[in-house]
Amino acid sequence: MSIRKILRTPFLHLRSRKAPPTENYANPNTCFFHVLFKRAALAFYILSALFVDNFVIIFVVTFFLAALDFWVVKNVSGRILVGLRWWNEIDDMGKSVWKFESLNQESLARLNKNNSWLFWWSLYLTVSIFNFTRNYF
Known about the structure:
single chain; 2 strands; about 10% strand
């Protein structure tokens, strides 16, 4: 083997190396519905406030879309995307007790980072946009 060939080999190897694969969403349907109701509630709230003068209709439809979003986050996307679960139980004394569960650290490390990022940032941004628009519409 010649010296030139030895010196070129690592560089050729680096040039032919493929870029590391990017991580896609593990659950694209869940991500879609997680964002769908948030966008629907925001879009209806903003657009209807521009074109409709009836506050009751705006409030009821926006509230309904936000309730659908809450149900999806609590029962579907929270569990699938980030491993959160919570529910309410009534104990023997008749008191309401909330139970919260999350994945352990080992399971959290195996979660898809894109799913987790989408879940948390869509929650934060939706609340921020609602707070920003409440002063204007």
